[in-house]
Amino acid sequence: MASLLKEIQSVFSTLSDKEKKIANYILANPEKASRSHIQELAETIGVSISSITRFTKKISCRNFVEMKVRLAGVAELKEEEGIEQQLASSYRDMLTDVQDLGDAEQLQSVLNYITKANRIFIYGLGSSGLAAQELNYRLSRMGFVCEAITDPHLMIIRSTLLTSGDVILAFSRSGQTADLLQSVTKGKEKGAVVVAFTAFGETPLTKLSDVILWTVHPLRNHYLLTGLDLSTLYLIDRISLHFLSEKKREATYLETVDAIKTRET
């Protein structure tokens, strides 16, 4: 499912409505899909066999059988499980998915851009704003010059004043949030590097981005986690731990810990 999940997410925005129905079903029910005959799957989803055949080719499978093989073994939530079991299962699956979606070269590029940035502006609206604030909190405590922007008006103002050497870290699960896209476009015009944290490929955001870090499609956890999901937090932790491994960054971070302790006493 690993590479197949990434393949589905990367082409999702280019799929037809019928193909999106197929993708949504597979993302939500990978185990059922892997055990279904093509006729059975078509009837369950409400599409034609030919639509499924076209879909398999769009996600780089030679045929339906190959797609089933790649789906085989993927765990899904069981309806009879209680809330605790569903949540634990969802977390396990999401950690597996986000690790499998990862690209070491892409991540290293992001780390390099952050390291060399003159200024870092972290964009996010709605629940993505929570991610922006969290990453800003982490990076600022390690000495980076950064700011989380979660207001669309302030976002376009900041983008208008960006220069070459600045970096935008843009959180948007859909990659199609209009206010964020307007600001990212302006920032790109001003010479800023753009990094996208997103669950969908071939979107306006990914087309504007220099680097993409993938989060997990919300249907993989049946929309149980609709705010700051674990896959986004995983990426934030991964970036944070990289920089905390540097002695100077760690010392700066610990200095802020001492400052907070002193304030509390």
TrEMBL record:
Annotated transmembrane regions: none
Record key words, sorted: DNA-binding, Transcription, Transcription regulation
Domain SIS span(s) in chain numbering: 110-241
Pfam families: HTH_6 (PF01418), SIS (PF01380)
Domain of life: Bacteria
MF terms (GO), sorted A to Z: carbohydrate derivative binding; DNA binding; DNA-binding transcription factor activity
Protein's name according to its UniProt entry: MurR/RpiR family transcriptional regulator
Gene3D superfamilies: Glucose-6-phosphate isomerase like protein, domain 1 (3.40.50.10490), Winged helix-like DNA-binding domain superfamily/Winged helix DNA-binding domain (1.10.10.10)
Organism: Fictibacillus phosphorivorans
Keyword Metal-binding attached: no
BP GO terms, sorted: carbohydrate derivative metabolic process
Domain HTH rpiR-type: 2-78
InterPro entries: Homeodomain-like_sf (IPR009057), HTH_RpiR (IPR000281), RpiR-like (IPR047640), RpiR-like_SIS (IPR035472), SIS_dom (IPR001347), SIS_dom_sf (IPR046348), WH-like_DNA-bd_sf (IPR036388)
